[in-house]
Structure of ABC transporter ATP-binding protein:
Amino acid sequence: MNELVVSELHAGYGGAQVLHGVSFTVGEGEIGAILGPNGAGKTTLLRALSGMVKGRGSVRLDGVELLGSSPDTLARRGVAHVPEGRGTFMPLTVEENLRLGAYVRRSGVDADLDRIYGYFPALKPRLKQAAGSLSGGEQQMLALGRALMLRPRLLLLDEPSLGLAPLVTRELFRIVRAINEQERTTVVVVEQNAHLALGIAQQAHVLETGRIVLSGTAARIRADEQVAQSYLGYR
Ligand code: ATP
């Protein structure tokens, strides 16, 4: 149903090409991890998938081409992007931020809010608080909650662990896994923390200077010591 198939994707900024023919697949309801060093093009890849940068090639979700559509059209088709730095509106309240996530429709919003509090009970007592007053972890949860209000078929997460304490990060990844399992949402997660991402993903793809240099099951990549050393910088 919501299989993501990326083929020969080229993208960049003006004349600067960043992605040079990226191809990978994330199975329906699976989590695909995109790993790789700074500047490899991971953020650009997510931006191309959500229509924020233009791309050439093909990006199909459930067989339907996404490339060439605006971010707004893609949001309506169920592509939710949680950018690095989270993109929450700091002066707005938690509840206002969540409701904004459902801007593409009018019905079922209150029921969806309840669904979000189920995943993130910590947000419920803070509904009337400004998003800017939340801790970093709570802000990341809010950003994820806002994306869920879209009822996404494809959830794009850019560095969710950035700046968060290890305990908070582990909790966040547990929730991402729960969302993926309960809603069958296909997820693409970009992460510097390869160990964490490999813990929740089925497949992983290593991006280097705009090209996928390695793809495999998360278990295989985690188990392969040489891969871990040469591509991911840890043993
Ligand atoms: P990081 O983890 O540091 O964010 P990344 O793998 O996500 O790295 P990108 O942010 O996609 O990498 O950047 C890839 C390349 O594109 C870099 O060389 C970067 O300088 C360039 N780049 C990123 N954003 C822009 C932009 N808005 N305009 C021009 N070049 C950009």
About this structure: The mean pLDDT is 92. The longest strand covers residues 16-26. The beta strands are 4-13, 16-26, 31-35, 55-61, 64-65, 79-82, 154-158, 186-190, 203-208, 211-217.
